[in-house]
Amino acid sequence: MEQGDVHPLHPAGPDGAGEEAPGLGLPPEVLTIVNELQADFERSGGAPLSLARLSKRTQLRMSTLRRFLSALEEAGIVKVELNEDGTGSVQLLLPPQG
User: Residue 35 belongs to a domain with what CATH number?
Assistant: First the structure.
């Protein structure tokens, strides 16, 4: 990222402050994505979720969803698989329960 670029997990609003979830320092879209992935993980036993289905469930445009997923993948929270035809899937990576 270049200096002055806005990181998807810490976006700046028009005043440069950014809109974040109270107390967590994360954009609400990130929480929506992670919450939906967690719910799907519990339903499916950890099977990958299609990007199209996640986009529909979170009501985020695909471009927005992919931007946030890229940041979450960099952080080691999700694994994203992209296919040549433009489709793909995402899987939540959870630490082992001890």
Answer: 1.10.10.10
